[in-house]
């Protein structure tokens, strides 16, 4: 009874495990070496993976793939436990200040590569990921500068300030009349006017640069697991030629069989003989009347002879 209950519990556990979705996606692993060779006349590809004891081997690709016109399918997958160099991907982010936001100037501040060492004993050389560079403004400030412009107005009728414009526009900025110097040739006056103003601009006080360095770091003397996957190549199966679609021949429509016309009968003959001629009927009627009259006359004459006798 206990064995039966245990079997039922195991079956239920497997059913629940199969129905439950995976909580985390399996990390895909990449081979440390790939070798192409021939085994007899059969092409082979050997892929070697080195995983740590914590890695999930389900991330090793075992599906079929195509290469050089051949379809490769998994033949063998072997595992070997050994002590070796464990490697893993590693990323480090650096942050620094920059006085400019120009990318060309920022690149001068970043080294192309840097050495990395982790707390758990992994070390390696990381390469700058140029696509990860981000430049952000740290803050803004404002500054004001003085503007000045000179204008000359000749051939004026007099030294009259009303003849001199009170404002002008210079380089998009509005300036106000600040000073006028007059000169005269005895007949006309010339005004040498000076206009002043201010301009306020906003500028970045500095920039913050962040960038990622990525690569592989390694640790010797680790317990590692070496998986070797061997794939065999075959010619792809020829696809069956598509069967041309045949258009069914149209089904002939039978012509209706004409019904035989009924043979004429007396009734139909009378029906289709047209209007009846009344002359023969009148002749027969007259003859009958004459015959009847003669019979009646002969009978009357015979009765008269009997009476006289």
Outline the structure in words.
5% of the residues are buried. The radius of gyration is 61 Å and the shape is flat. The N terminus is likely disordered. Strands 1, 2, 3, 4, 5, 6, 7, 8 and 9 form a 9-stranded antiparallel β-sheet that branches. It starts with a helix and ends with a helix. The chain has 4 helices and 9 strands. With 309 residues, it is α+β, with helices and mostly antiparallel strands.
Main attributes of the structure:
9 strands, disordered N terminus, 19% helix
Summarize, please:
The chain is an alpha+beta fold and 309 residues long. The chain has helices at 2-19, 103-107, 266-272, 279-308, and strands at residues 33-39, 42-52, 65-67, 70-98, 113-117, 123-156, 167-170, 173-184, 189-234.
Question: How are the secondary structure elements laid out?
Answer:
Layout: H1 2-19, E1 33-39, E2 42-52, E3 65-67, E4 70-98, H2 103-107, E5 113-117, E6 123-156, E7 167-170, E8 173-184, E9 189-234, H3 266-272, H4 279-308
Antiparallel strand pairs: 1-2, 2-9, 3-4, 4-9, 5-6, 6-9, 7-8, 8-9
Rg: 61 Å
Specify the biggest β-sheet: 9 strands, antiparallel
Spell the H/E element sequence: HEEEEHEEEEEHH
- Alpha-beta classification: alpha+beta
Low-confidence stretches: 1-23, 264-274
Helix content: 10-25%
Number of helices: 4
- How far apart the termini lie comes to 149 Å
Gross morphology is: flat
Strand percentage, roughly?
over 45%
Number of strands: 9
- Quaternary status: single chain
Mean pLDDT across the residues is 82
